Amino acid sequence: MRLNHILRCTASVAVVGVAAFGFAGAAAAQDGPTTVDDIIVTAQKREQSLQDVPIVVTTLSQAALEGAGVRDIKDLQILTPGMTVTSTQSETATTARIRGVGTVGDNPGLESSVGVVIDGVYRSRNGVGFGDLGELSRIEVLKGPQGTLFGKNTSAGVINIISEAPSFTPGFEAEATYGNFGAWGIAGSVTGPLSDKVAGRLYMAKRERDGFYDVVTGPGPRQETDDQNQNFWTARGQLLILPSDDISIRLIADYSKRDEYCCVSTQVRTGPTVAFINAVGGQQAAPAPGFGELPFSRTAYANRGTGQTMEDMGFSAEANIDIPSWNATFTSLSSWRNWSGVNGMDLDYTTADLLYRPHDGGYGFELDNLTQEVRLAGATDRIDWLVGAFMTRETINRDDSYWYGAGYTPFMSLLISSQLNAGSSAIPISPNIVGCLTRPGTTAEFLTGCLATGGMAPSGPAAPTGPGFGAGHGVQDHYRQTTESFAIFTNNTLHLTDQFDVTLGLRYTLDDKSLTGVQDNLGTNGAACGGALGNIAAMTGALMSAGLPQAAAQSTAGRLASNLCLPWANPLFDNRRIGEGHSNGEFSGTVKGSYRFNDSVMAYASYARGYKSFGYNMDRVQGPTATNPLPITPSNSLLFPSETVDSFEIGLKNTLFNRSVLFNITYFNQKFEDFQLNTFLGTAFVVESIPELTSKGVDADFVWFTPVQGLSFNGGVTYTDTKYGDFTAADLANPGNFPQLSLLPGARASFAPEWSATAAVAFDRSIGSGMKVGLNLSAKYSTEFNTGSDLLPYKMQDAMTLLNGRITLGAEDDRWALDLWAQNLTDEEYKQVAINAPLQGSAFQTTVQPNGTYYNPALDTQTYNAFMGQPRTYGVTLRVRY
Predict the structure, then answer these.
(1) Domains plus CATH for the chain?
(2) Stretch 159-182: mean pLDDT
(3) Is the pTM of this model over 0.90?
């Protein structure tokens, strides 16, 4: 406790103290680039100076990443304006967005809009690339579509991660970390020659941390009282083989394993269903002017476990062969990767025992991927040319399960009877109503008496005989998606004059995907729904007897039956076989023109077309049809179409003040068609293609290597106007989804703040006796934005600022260093993602409201939950290097 107090106070105060004395006098040399010319990127699959590349690139050196405490993709966003990274119901559901555009990661059938590439190997899902990135050389964030060179599913941008390669100079590094929330970690690496022509590198790390949430478990059986902890280890081995001066081969093998608890959520707003949660054994916070506990107390509710186990492994082989006679290089990059994850979930996010997924292997997915890329790149006096081909085969196996808790039937009874009571006070609110509605062959007369007595038979205390939802395993579904993709591409820069270049790039991608699967209801699951569907006429008669007009009675009867036929309870899915296949070919490419006015200023304009592959929604999807207005019919096809983007940019790259200042500014205008929106409707994730999404604005980046040795500043600003186009229900593939999406037409997209700005300062100062002290501060500001894909107002996140700090005391020769660090130094409280709590109220209505949408805040009974951002963390790290 005392050490925690000291660390917390020191992290908050010492940063200011060091800043006060640190900016005068001589300074020690700083690792990393010291002029703009030293900033090298591989955004066009060849090494170039950042200022020669007609692309918006935020490049982050090893020193910048270390100073900001970047260990994974989430940490990266504090250094990158216009980029957000969020996670929801598990760490596998991690989504990166650039300029307000990204793909929600909860459904593995969806590929990413922001590509993640690690040492040249594409990771097809953002969540698969989440984890300890190890020893980093640099990271490049490429904004805008990058389909020509990086392929499909980079329609919003690319995160290009380059790790440290083996060295023929022997070296050893190790670190040990201790911090609050019981965090500790150790990591180490060794590199050096294994022979005259072979060098190796080995990195290993182990990290643990307690959870960020306090969990109220209620009656259990969950025992863990915290959540979102950390417990993983990773290993990465490399070989660099140089058979000759013209050939280099790099082999990389890695393995990671996580065994953690994630993810619960906190209440943002508590609706009236809290009374029903508590009535069936829950322990939720009572409504207080419409709200439950403040979410920033980090108190969550879950009676079921949220264990998550992830395993990630892979191998890659990159060979580069120089061909001097052609002034060219042939590159072959082969990879195999396997990723698997198994999760447990408390699906209602309460202490009531309603609906859950145990951590038993019944819910999770496995992704197996083989890739092969070949490139031939060369240069003459007037052209830099590149041609290549890419092939991949990917298999996804997904398992999905639902288990009923003992409280599900009485909770649904309370929910349904409260709806009936609102229309007729003669029907009491009762936990025994479901059996009235599901009793086979019931009559309107029997149902009238059963409802009036709160679920007791009209002749006395005999219970109704209709089935409910028995506690236990209710659903087990299996899906398998196989993808084969082939692409050929070329990217060529013509030096028309000494000042004017034109880049022409073209890629053709052919995708073939197939989906097979089986959806199974187990035991008697589905009997309650079947009984209710057979009793709609009796329900209508009983409701008319209770005083409802015929039209209202018919509508209410249909709604009651639908409530008992949610996807996991619908017998129409039982033993349902799935088999689909689809192929599609698509061109993507770019045209760029750049003009260098002098050595310091370059202007460019570009057009790019990007492509994001079609896919399959691996979930139970149901809705109304022309012959059945009830939203219970399984969808005939789970296919959703490809997404495309056309992007225009005009930019200016400036290198000023003796190559010590970089200032780049770019205007962008992007138009996405058939934007793949994955949204949670309270009972299932639904993929809907939005006809149009536009993202336009300005990106600006700034770097200053000051005259004070070791002192540098960098930052950036992104202004975005990212909006959905106007659309109606008729424009959607599934018009029945429009009510839940009715706030979108013409509105700003979720996770798209109007302004986003970053700033960082790094400084090293010699203090004599072979010692130095260093300071790193990094900050990010975002204006308000909505964290929900349906744009409900309770999901808004206010403007916020995140601040990271690090103070380093160490040897001038870098043999050792002691870091005092803090992430989210000011303990900013913010939501990552807000959601509609399943089964707990409704936000959207069934008819159009006065504002022209299906949402009326006065009628909103929804309970809202949120997955919170990380709180302040702080600690010390000791590093040694030889």
Answers:
(1) 2-330+337-405+474-522+570-838+852-881 (2.40.170.20), 410-470+527-563 (no CATH)
(2) 97
(3) yes
